[in-house]
């Protein structure tokens, strides 16, 4: 019998990297007995030290008391042997390296070692959860719980279903997320990149094409979106910060082989290949869209974006969001919540669409799509029927 929320006392986290140690720290502070498992003893010791450091920061910031932290540390244990780590687990969260084949091997081992009723979750940001479920003999007990970095500070967790996931299991997972003090949003279908990262993709992709075609500069677009629209970072600044150039180029073939609903089938902007071939991956290589050899942050003038229309960026994002609603991937409310909590956006895409009108979004999107007549990206940027319907009828999303 699958565990219910009232049965959950023991949580095991597989992987003691930044995400794994953060998830374990959150669960222990919330009152759960937590085992963090990793084959690397040195990694486990680093995890122990970093968790204690983050707990002390919580005390300094009045987010936790000394008594709560002492109790959480008592509830934490660290283990190199996987079978021992999951022996009493009610929920297991895998937070290993972001490689499909490695995760599948781990799930085979978890299926063999974890208690029969345990729920198995994966902290992937976009890999195929259905395939992970299907390497086990308990596919109905496997789902995604995509945490955001750093887990101690970020409020959002995407809970991702597969076609095998019953409502009772996803509801248990969502209640657990709430019980550890986080906000869950539900991704009803296992689609590539899930919710928040699907919104992030057009935020970075369409501006890259605009620069490649010579229509605008990095600074014009970043200035407009950061200072004009209130995003924490412009699309190019964000890409350099996250290493998105390398991730997008190296992940292109994986997306083309993906057979899940709403799988991507688009060209990578040639500008990204040009930067990639020069090893300009972003801040970690001291150069990406911007040069960081003598500065930590890009120089983005506040007034540089005055001639740029932000709807050229918003329109593909709203379209992607509308596709998710149209295909029953997520609700309007969850998508907007994800954008604001997971991306720190000033407003969600549907809030923006209702603010300016779906007809204005459709107009700009048609303009954007028309510039992709010779690329595969035109299929991705064509207006979806839900957006067209809202614009034609003069309706709002809320």
TrEMBL record:
Keywords: Oxidoreductase. GO terms for biological process: monocarboxylic acid metabolic process. It comes from the Archaea. GO terms for molecular function: oxidoreductase activity. InterPro entries: 3-OHacyl-CoA_DH_NAD-bd, 3HC_DH_C, 6-PGluconate_DH-like_C_sf, 6PGD_dom2, NAD(P)-bd_dom_sf. The keyword Oxidoreductase applies. Residues 194-292, 314-377 form the 3-hydroxyacyl-CoA dehydrogenase C-terminal domain. Residues 10-190 form the 3-hydroxyacyl-CoA dehydrogenase NAD binding domain. It holds the Pfam family 3HCDH. This is 3-hydroxyacyl-CoA dehydrogenase NAD-binding domain-containing protein. It comes from Halovenus salina.
